[in-house]
Amino acid sequence: MSTPDENTKSRCPRCGELSAPGARFCEQCGFELRGQAVEGDEATGAPPTEPIPVVTVVDPDPDSSVTPPPPRLSARDHFTEKPSDWVAGVCDRGVRHARNEDAMALAAAGPGSANGTAALVVCDGVSSAPNSDVASLEAARVARDALVTFEPVGSLPVRGKIERRVAEWTQAMVAASRAAGAAVVRTGDEIARGASSSGRRSTPAIDPPACTFAAAVVDSGLVVAGWLGDSRVYWLPDDGVAEQLSVDDSWAQEMMAAGFSREQAEHSPQSHAITRWLGRSAPDHDAHCAAMLPEVPGWVLVCSDGLWNYCSEAEHVADLVHRLSGGTTDPSETAAALVLWANAAGGRDNITVALARVEPGRGEREGTDAEPADAEPAA
């Protein structure tokens, strides 16, 4: 039985997914591919087993046996960020992967969402592409910095305070995703040049690093989301209808658009194949965007598929967050609880959870056409 190298593809014996050349782990289920037969090898006579199902409703069985995670190797495997009391996140390698290719970068200013601003960015590195762990972290940090430092140029020709802010933050989100995409390309080029100068073998032209992008800005209660790929942004109110603000750029989403149910689409062997991403091979790096103005308290959640693999629909995610939070409004405690839950559910992928606690103030619920008293009229 032959083993995969940088120029051969391997088919996962657990779920049947065909992985890219040189992949160490299956992108679909996280199974280690080293030592497995390559595609076309007659030694693998048994048909592939069914893919691991997506759990969308129930919590994991606390009495079930859970494979312990591999030993932690570096701070990159598990890290937390808490830039303020109302914004925090946890990024974790999960149970089955050898490295953490997820990344996040958070920033916040102000005492709370009613009078503050926050940026939450999550990037999920594509496992089949080498060095995606490096690229995803750089992309997340570059995008966060772009959102934090963004300053609109001039006035936009739209009526109303809220409409203008939405337009400005949408512009900022697209600029941030473009900057993140450029960072992924630049990181891949720098790694390739380093490998070439040292004489090491590299395949950057075949498999350049790539990652997804999901981000949310909270500006005095206004929420603007941006995304490429299948990392997600949710709005989870304490009372009311939860929403998935992002729309996956994925094969599963294409199936749902064609009339398949969510369950059918997310059980598909190709469900996690993404149709847009950040990286050299991407057609563009312009994020899709959506905005909303919450009227009740709740959570903005930005996460990778390591979480929503086990709880996908917005209403189920909201129920999960409300149960695990235990009534606390501390985002760091809730994020940590969600990561532990996902690992207990199987941890078959890296897991990133970033949360912002939104507490709308009186000013955010006033009419959208009123200009602030000290503002200059729009041009």
Descriptive overview:
The chain has about 375 residues and is α+β, with helices and mostly antiparallel strands. It folds into 2 domains: about 50 residues, no CATH class; about 290 residues, 4-Layer Sandwich (Phosphatase 2c, domain 1). Helix content is about 25%, strand content about 20%. Strand 8 and strand 9 form a beta hairpin. Helix 1 packs antiparallel against helix 2 and helix 6 packs across helix 7. The N terminus and C terminus are likely disordered.
Which terms would index this structure?
single chain; 379 residues; alpha+beta; Phosphatase 2c, domain 1; 2 domains; 7 helices; disordered N terminus; disordered C terminus
The domain tally reads 2
Strand order of the largest sheet: 3-4-15-14-10-11
> Mean pLDDT across all residues, rounded?
78
The number of helices is: 7
**Main sheet characteristics:** 6 strands, antiparallel
Provide the CATH superfamily of the largest domain: PPM-type phosphatase domain
The rough form would be described as: globular
Oligomeric state, counting identical vs distinct chains:
single chain
Low-pLDDT runs of 5+ residues are 1-8, 35-67, 154-159, 362-379
Query: Which strand-content bin applies to the residues?
Result: 15-25%
Report helical residue fraction.
Answer: 25-40%
Write down the CATH class of the largest domain. Answer: Alpha Beta
What is the CATH T-level topology of the largest domain?
Answer: Phosphatase 2c, domain 1
- Under the CATH scheme, which architecture of the largest domain would be assigned? 4-Layer Sandwich
Order of helices and strands: EEEEEEHHEEEEEHHEEEHHHE
Radius of gyration, in angstroms, nearest whole number: 21 Å
Biased composition (Basic and acidic residues): 359-368
Region (Disordered): 359-379
InterPro entries: PPM-type-like_dom_sf, PPM-type_phosphatase-like_dom
Pfam families: PP2C_2 (PF13672)
